[in-house]
Fold this protein.
Amino acid sequence: MAKTDELAQSSMFHGIPLAGLERVALLAKEVSSPAQAHLFRKGEKADRVYLIRDGHLDLTFMVTLAEAESELTIDHKGQGDAVGWSAVIAPHIYTLSAVCRNTVSLYAFEGPALMELCEEDLRFGSLFMRNVAGIVGARVSQLQQMFIKEVQRGIAPM
């Protein structure tokens, strides 16, 4: 079972009252993933949301340049960060891959169980989905900034 203080310090469960944290703690499963392993891959069915307890992972996706495939890192995540939010957002397909930089300890939450809790406890659901929206919004902003940099680099005077 997850510790409520760990949950409260995460961006995913920030601001959720203790009663809600206690309920979500019961849903947490402690898992680990070894260095260099994929926790999940872009395009796979998203069934779990993860909260990193210890270790670091990279969020990546494959790009093909001049017929060579390469994994492009979009972001680095560590303790207290949530990944895999696609498990609670339709169409429930991971939009990036997660590659462990070292051994990573996590709490795993089944997406359907989290959504059931959201429906049972509307206060929890409202706060949880607000936090998930913040995580998604930050990712969109980050990708937008990366795109702008690439466009600027492509049109810079030579």
Q: What stands out?
A: The radius of gyration is 17 Å. The domain at 4-151 is CATH 2.60.120.10 (Jelly Rolls). The first strand starts at residue 29 and ends at 33. Residues 122-155 form the longest helix (34 residues).
